[in-house]
Amino acid sequence: MKYLRHMLAVVGLIGLFGYGGSALAQATTAAPAATVAAADRTRAGDEVCTRCHDESENKPVLSYYQTKHGVKGDARTPGCQTCHGASANHLKGNTSGQRPAPDVIFTKGAFAASDEKTRAAQCLACHKGTNRTHWEGSKHESNQVACNDCHKNHAPADKVLNRKTQTEVCFACHKEQRADSHKISAHPIAEGKVICSDCHNPHGSPAASLLKKNTVTETCYQCHAEKRGPFLWEHQPVSENCANCHTPHGSNQTPLLKSRAPFLCQECHDGPHNSKTPYAGSVAGIQGGVTSATPTKTPVNPGSNQAGRGCQNCHSMVHGSNSPAGALLQR
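Structure (tokenized):
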């Protein structure tokens, strides 16, 4: 019997340590799972936390139950432990009298906040796909912004989700855009008719500047459909990018222009109306690059801008024209 017990022990050791020690590896990886407490999203699970964390906190937490996250009748909604972790060590305390930190901390207080990736991961565990598809690698994610830096889940009203208060949240970081919005020509942001998320997707986008559409022009066309065309006579910078001429967040030149005419126009149009011997070519010649030209009787001083001071006095259809005679965008 002693010999049999000895052989069984040897076989057990071979099974444990032999062939790469797979049994030992399984035993080692299984051990922590048995000690980690599962998150309890129920009201009873929340009471473990709210026994101490209540309205007496510097940032009261019980208003959480006035939000969508606090609806216990919906099995999809989280609880305190779902976001902050079961935090067994925090609940148990320790012998030194100082309580360990919870598993996940969203706001710096008695303990340092968890890193932004950990905090965002807690939210993205439920909020997947759709507008958050491009969060990884987005401008906000790469600049160490986490969800709770903009969203306030314990408050009954989340400012970033309200059209009247969203810009306050965005302008807390984007101060240059705040200043632009107060210039004499701006989108009606202060009136609440246009807000940041009308043009931008803060959770990430394949386009530049977190735009909701693929390009600046497509984004602008959501509201400015009359500029979309197609036109018989196109104005090339309009087709390329609205920001060639306009600055979207605000300008001291109406309507949202980067600079006033003729200086804005002369960034591209550097010839006929401001040269020593101005052109008066045919329409075909001008469309082909001013190939047929005859000088006018009265040459213009190249430094005076006399003929080009008000370009839109003649070229009024700057976004494009459908007139058969509108090759010069004059009608």
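Confidence is low (pLDDT under 50) at residues 6-36, 277-305. The two ends are 109 Å apart (CA to CA).
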